[in-house]
């Protein structure tokens, strides 16, 4: 169970002045009635924007969970950011990808309506789908005790991705690509973790296709816009696991792990 609870309006100055951090409402009720958090238990409360306060519980009821601020951390955001573009997929595989990627440290998530996506967000489903993914990211961030809550953007089209490719280092995961992700990281990030000439602060964007893969014309369009095609190995991973695997490789090369 999570030992991090979120309060997005938690203010560092207020915590410093009072020596207390608290959550109320649904978050407090969940902490006390579902997680069964008790007095004296050591937990953390964060604001999802770098602040994490840790200490023993001094108030625990359905209306409020409060802790003594023994440790106050202000974590800087990661640079470069790791961004996952996840194609919509059926059977909840896209949601599995979002959850795992959040736990592994992704900094932003972009839902993508790919040509071969069986699942579709249309009409009211667009906002509902984004809210659902944001909820998954929030819970996964609490589970993994993350200082920064990843952004979940609005639904992207392939045209939107073309524009993004021009302002980022975009990697499209494609099993037939000649270049391995490990080869790209060695050349682009450097074996000692240094950039090989490109702006080291540019986002690294991972594009994962749907169950049927990314359509040939989409691959061509993204390449023409500046994206690189990379493969993870000799096997073909599911859309639910490919992004998480790639994030693991990049995190190791970037020194996050």
Automatic annotation (TrEMBL):
Gene3D superfamilies: 3.40.1280.10, Hypothetical PUA domain-like, domain 1. It is found in: Cytoplasm. Transmembrane segments: none annotated. Residues 23-64 form the Ribosomal RNA small subunit methyltransferase E PUA-like domain. CDD domains: RsmE-like (cd18084). Belongs to the RNA methyltransferase RsmE family. The keyword Cytoplasm applies. Residues 79-250 form the Ribosomal RNA small subunit methyltransferase E methyltransferase domain. It is an enzyme of class 2 (transferase). This is Ribosomal RNA small subunit methyltransferase E. InterPro entries: Alpha/beta_knot_MTases, PUA-like_sf, RsmE, RsmE_MTase_dom, RsmE_PUA-like, tRNA_m1G_MTases_N. It comes from Microterricola pindariensis. Its main location: cytoplasm. It catalyses: uridine(1498) in 16S rRNA + S-adenosyl-L-methionine = N(3)-methyluridine(1498) in 16S rRNA + S-adenosyl-L-homocysteine + H(+). Its EC number is 2.1.1.193. Keywords: Cytoplasm, Methyltransferase, rRNA processing, S-adenosyl-L-methionine, Transferase. The keyword Cytoplasm applies. Specifically methylates the N3 position of the uracil ring of uridine 1498 (m3U1498) in 16S rRNA. Acts on the fully assembled 30S ribosomal subunit.
């Amino acid at each position: 169970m999570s030992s991090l609870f979120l309060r997005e309006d938690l203010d560092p100055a207020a915590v410093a002045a009072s020596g207390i951090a608290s959550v109320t409402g649904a978050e407090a009720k969940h902490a006390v009635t579902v997680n069964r958090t008790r007095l004296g238990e050591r937990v953390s409360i964060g604001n999802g924007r770098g602040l994490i306060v840790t200490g023993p519980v001094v108030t625990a009821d359905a209306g409020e969970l409060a802790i003594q601020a023994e440790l106050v951390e202000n974590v800087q955001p990661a640079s470069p950011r790791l961004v996952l573009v996840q194609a919509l997929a059926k059977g909840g595989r896209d949601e599995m990808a979002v959850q795992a990627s959040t736990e592994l440290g992704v900094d932003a998530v972009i839902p993508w309506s790919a040509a071969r996506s069986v699942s579709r967000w249309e009409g009211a489903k667009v906002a509902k789908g984004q809210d659902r993914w944001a909820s998954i990211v929030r819970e996964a961030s609490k589970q993994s005790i993350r200082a920064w809550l990843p952004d979940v953007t609005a639904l992207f089209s392939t045209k939107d991705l073309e524009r993004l490719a021009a302002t980022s280092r975009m990697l499209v995961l494609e099993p037939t690509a000649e270049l391995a992700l490990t080869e790209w990281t060695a050349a682009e990030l450097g074996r000692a973790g240094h950039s090989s000439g490109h702006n080291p602060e540019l986002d690294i964007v991972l594009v994962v296709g749907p169950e049927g893969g990314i359509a040939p014309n989409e691959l061509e369009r993204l390449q023409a816009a500046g994206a690189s095609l990379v493969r993870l190995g000799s096997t073909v991973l599911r859309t639910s696991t490919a992004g998480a695997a790639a994030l693991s490789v990049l995190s190791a090369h970037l020194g996050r792990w």
